[in-house]
Amino acid sequence: MVNQEFYHLGTAPSVIRQLFAYGLQQAAVVGPENVYDYSLGNPSIPAPAKVNQSIHEIVDTVDSIKLHGYSMAPGFEGCRNAVAADLSKRFGLDVKASELFFTCGAAPALISIIKAMIVDSDSEIMAIAPFFPEYRPFVTANGGKLVVVPADTKAFQIHLDAVEERITKNTQAIIVNSPNNPSGVVYTEETLKGLAALLERKSAEYGHPIYIIADEPYRELVYGGVKVPFIPCLYKNTIVCYSYSKSLSLPGERIGYVYVPGFADDSDAVYAAVSGAARIMGHVCPPTLLQMVIERCAEERPDLVAYDENRNLLYNALTEMGYECAKPDGAFYLFVKAPNGDANAFSEKAKLEHNLLVVPADGFGCPGFFRLSYCVANDMIKRSLPAFKAMIESYK
Ligand code: PLP
């Protein structure tokens, strides 16, 4: 007998992985140039040159025992100091190394803070649709309740009235992901200020802080000069989960952090609980080599030219054909309305008739839409356009 909840999580099919596997299988049959795979959010631009240079330098110069040894549980001072200095400079805050807890990417960062926030089986964590599907098991498998705020399917901002209706005395936190996976939308400062005012009012009403968990792996992936507000500057009770998976194209290296601002309510207790949660997950001492890389590369930013070209090509071509899309200012996703409102049927037909792989958004809490990950070769996008055209024509 094994734990049934984990058994089901371990055997539940992932739509994204199934599409990806289908693409690999079809590539062997029809040739890779005839498969248009928009399923996975795996970065397609290389890590900045300084990352690989730093790895060489570190391997050549750092004592082998230190290089391959454990770090302190929350990460090395040097790495945390470098990131704290960069955040302070960029956002005008006095971020301290002691407020950062390094993790193996955003997923363990999120799970640590979610665990820290779930105090009993009544604890509620909110997510705003559309949202990263893993939020659901991250909350429920840790004993909490996930409360979903329905999507604003016009601008993909946040319906504040819908948030207010769902806040109860058990609301511990709301997860805010901007730039958003899957919509590609960046929440505006006006939206976030409105949310901050609402949460301040509700926290006072219920007599305890309602935190924002800012899930920010796409913070640096933004186009056309759009600014991504840094939420701790707008709302003090914000805990940031960050990752270098997308910003430095390092998803396989597993490195990121939790930032618990010293000015947040009960910040010492929150930090300690994050540390305790990471401990029982076994997610302490993230990779030493990568911490040393981040120490040297804290100020590196991605070169977004290739993603921006893909974004413009796909957005312009699809909207010209008649598809309806949220305006994608960030991340590397395009969120498209299925022509007749049935995204599952659209995805299946596109797959079988054109080897065009798009992800229906039911798992993202937003049925009727599908997600395209445009972190792909520009050439593949060009080759896929006739398939998109044939698909929309078939619905007319
Ligand atoms: N949060 C969001 C919104 C994501 O899209 C992802 C990964 O795709 C993660 C968290 C997890 O990122 P990581 O690879 O750093 O664990």
Give the number of helices: 15
Give the low-confidence spans: none
Please provide the count of β strands. 12
Please estimate the helix content: 40-55%
Measured distance between first and last alpha carbons: 52 Å
How large is the radius of gyration?
Answer: 21 Å
Task: Give the ligands present.
Answer: pyridoxal-5'-phosphate
Summarize the helix and strand pattern as letters. HHEHHHEHEHEHEHEEHEHHHEHEEEH
Strand order of the largest sheet: 2-8-7-6-5-3-4
Largest sheet: 7 strands, mixed
SSE map:
Elements: H1 4-11, H2 15-30, E1 36-37, H3 49-61, H4 64-67, H5 77-91, E2 100-103, H6 106-117, E3 124-128, H7 135-140, E4 145-149, H8 160-166, E5 171-177, H9 189-206, E6 211-215, E7 238-243, H10 244-247, E8 256-259, H11 267-281, H12 288-297, H13 305-321, E9 333-337, H14 343-354, E10 356-357, E11 359-360, E12 369-373, H15 378-394
Parallel strand pairs: 1-10, 3-4, 3-5, 5-6, 6-7
Antiparallel strand pairs: 2-8, 7-8, 9-12, 11-12
The structure holds pyridoxal-5'-phosphate.
Key words describing this protein structure:
seven-stranded mixed sheet, 396 residues, binds pyridoxal-5'-phosphate
